[in-house]
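Archive entry. Fields below.
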Amino acid sequence: MKFGILVSEGPYTHQASDSAYQFTKAALEKGHEIFRVFFYHDGVNNATRLTTPPQDDRNIVNRWSKLAEQYNLDMVVCVAAAQRRGIVDEGEAKRNGKDATNLAPGFRISGLGQLIEAGIQSDRMVTFGD
Amino acid sequence: MSGDIKKFMMVNRKAPYGTIYALESLEVVLIAAAFEQDVSLAFLDDGVYQLKKGHQTKGIEVKGFEKTYGALEDYDVEKLYVDQESLTARGLTAEDLCVPVEVMSRAELGKLMEEQDVLLSF
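PREDICTED_STRUCTURE:
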């Protein structure tokens, strides 16, 4: 089956991101297709590479990046939600005159149309949120 | 499921202010409409407050967006469903709302949800 995934909550504060990761990983391991993982609301905070959890804890951001690399996963961060919350890639930094970037590997910033497209293209759209 | 048009329902469960969900949900609605999808909105629980007339946000220094609900019909988004029980529990009726809606029972709303291709809950 082809799944679209929506992650609506940030890492560590909320279970949603962990559950989304575990679901996505399990689906991929079972041979399902993940059309896209879309990060919205505080979910965009899953995409900052500056995250530094204690060493004995899971690194939620790196875990997503690794999964993306392993499965060539498309992970999209909503541009408007990212701008509000300071998630920045090089293009956004240039456009908005920011002096730094923090987007983690495997993520890309794009528009909400990518969420709608995921809804259209996937057999099931699964939301992980509050 | 095939074709390029799907039935999208945005389920709004939270009060308009206090969290950003309602505002960012509206952004999804407008984009889905721009993609010419079959879009409807459901309002239940505290989500019914999103449609209550007379948002006053000056005191909390947050931009109000009551007007956006009125503009939805310009985007051909005209299917707004409101849960009767949620209204009643909050002492509200359809007359308290800023746009025309269809008020229905929880069972009817559930049936509508079953007919959707994509449910996005905010």
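CURATOR_NOTE: The interface with chain A takes residues 1, 4, 6, 8, 20-21, 24, 27-28, 31-32, 34-35, 37, 117-122 of chain B (CB under 8 Å).
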